[in-house]
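Hey, I'm writing a tutorial for new members on how sequence and structure tokens pair up, and I'd like a real worked example in the thread rather than a made-up one. If someone can provide the structure for the chain below, I'll link this post from the tutorial.
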Amino acid sequence: MSEPNPAPVDDDVIELAGRVFDLAREGATDELAQYLDAGVPADLTNAKGDTLLVLAAYQGRADTVAMLLAHGADHARVNDRGQTALAAAVFKQSADTVRALLDGGADPDHGRPSARATAEFFDLPAMTELLGR
């Protein structure tokens, strides 16, 4: 028995998802929070497996990261390459974002490469120290 083909996604939904991902990247915290309050999932994921949290962390948007965590975003989710939001923040050397994720319970040893392994590989002593707190 074959599985039915999924229904095509409406162009408006695709446009909305793109807008929401852009808000996470841009750090438009208040506007993004309104979308989450209206029902957009905090763990919305793009085609590469990047969540809103990963995108915000990679751009160093600490306030957006904190808001996403408060809305239930899962800091343990990994993208298709095994990377976490914490590893992204470490790679970008965003101390405020790393602190927000650690305060939210993110594990420095989760993911492949983990945040700790990322800091070691790229020789980022300030990030290594921050992860060891």
